[in-house]
Structures are given as structure tokens and as C-alpha cells.
Amino acid sequence: MYRIIENINFFFSSSVRNFIKFFDRVNLREESFSGDITGLLPIIGYALVIMSFIDFISVASQFQLQNFESELNSISAFTEHSWIFLIGLGFIFTRYFIENQYDIRYPEIIFQRIIRWVILLMGVAFFLAIPLVFVNTGRLLKSVNNQILEQQKGNLEQIAQIEKGLNSGLTTAQLKLLGRNINLTPEELKLSDPQIKDSIKRNLLIGKTRINEGANQAKRQQFRSRWRNSARTIIALFILAFTFVIVWFKIGQVF
């Protein structure tokens, strides 16, 4: 019995030691590892930068002037792809850490001198895009509000036509048909003609109120939604433009 307990204790203690050792730090010098994999970062960086430029070209090809929504979507897409572009640049710049400078090639220096001015142009373009986002958001909201107003006006005109027909004198059958079309209850349709007319007018008044309230609510929702998206784009443009200018300046100090 004592032997069994001793074996169980040995098993658990060995398991704990092996578990701790498994998650402990590894000294690569004592292992069979050699080389430096940080050289992979610039390769990944160049791949990200190239794909970012392909995405930029794709977005630019879909850019439509005088289409406010298309312009806003394109600017937003540019900002989304720019973060990947910055990450790629960061990976590329690891090549210029002191311990990696022995691996720098002359084409990379030429690339840095060229990309520096591309970065500056992007920074300036993003700064200039900020007021464009403000203006286009206002224009887009005005266009959307006009559509809402047109729909509101059309619905109110339909109600006005019904009211006009109601005042022109309708037969009992016509009144009941009109009542069914505007969802009067069966009990209301059994009332006398003047009472049916009153019920129809009351429902039409409720319909007008709902149409006006729905239009106002749609305007508020569009305002919040459009400006929420535009505010995010404006903040991203400002951060990206500021970052691009700093990167341009820092590269100029080195090259």
C-alpha cells in the first residue's frame, strides 16, 4: 500500500515538473537553433505594401466624381487600406535597425527615397480630404432628406385625395369600401354613414401624424448614421495624415 502511494506521488510530482518545464523559457544558444528570423519582417512588409497599392488602385478605379456617397465610401476605403500600408512600412523599417543594417541593399535605399515622397503626397491628400468629407456628408444628407420629403409629400397627397373624395359625397358601399382600405374595424363599418366618415377622417388624421413622425425619425436616423461614419473617417484621416508627415520627415533625416 505504501509503495502504491509513493508511485502516485512520484507520478504527480513528475507531471508538475514537466508541465512547468514545458512553459519555461528556452535558451536558444543551448539548442540547435541558429540564424535570425527578423529578416522575414521586411519581406512581409514589402508584400503588405504591394497589396496595399493594389487595393488603392482598385478603390481609385471605383471613384465617382459628383457622387457624394461614392466619394465618401472611397475615402473611407482608402483609410481602411492605409492601416495595412503603415503596418507594412513598419515591418520594412525593421531592416534599418542597427543589428540588421549589414543586410541593407541599394535598391532598398532607392525604394525608401521614392516611397518617402509618396507618403508625403498621401499625407497631404488625406489632410485635404477632411473638409471634403464634411462637405459631402452635408450634401448627402441634404439629398437623402429631399428623398424622404418627396416620399412624405407623396403619402400626404394620397391622404389629401382620399379626403377630397370623402367630401364629394360617397355612397354607403363606397364609404365601406374606403373604410376597409384604411383598415376600419368590422364594428366601425356597421355604423351609420356620418359615423363611418368620422372614423375615416380620424384614421386619416392618425395616418398624417404617423407619416410626419416617420419622416422626422428617418431624418434623425440618417443624420446620426451618416455623421457617425463620417466622424470615424475624419479622425482616421487626421491620424493617418499626421503619421504620414512624421514618417516622411523621419525618413528624410536618415536618407
Description:
The protein has helices at residues 2-22, 40-61, 68-93, 106-167, 172-181, 186-189, 193-254. The protein is mainly alpha-helical and 255 residues long.
Summarize the structure.
The chain has 255 residues and is an all-alpha fold.
| H-E string | HHHHHHH
Rg is: 35 Å
Specify the biggest β-sheet: none
Mean pLDDT: 79
Query: What gross morphology would you assign?
Result: elongated
Number of helices: 7
Kindly name the structural category.
Answer: mainly alpha
Work out the number of β strands: 0
Share of residues in strands: under 5%
Unreliable segments of 5+ consecutive residues = none
Rounded to the nearest angstrom, the distance between the terminal CA atoms is: 77 Å
Q: Work out the helicity level.
A: over 70%
Question: Secondary structure elements and their pairing?
Answer:
Layout: H1 2-22, H2 40-61, H3 68-93, H4 106-167, H5 172-181, H6 186-189, H7 193-254
Helix pairs in contact: 2-3, 3-4, 3-7, 4-7, 5-7
Which keywords apply here?
255 residues
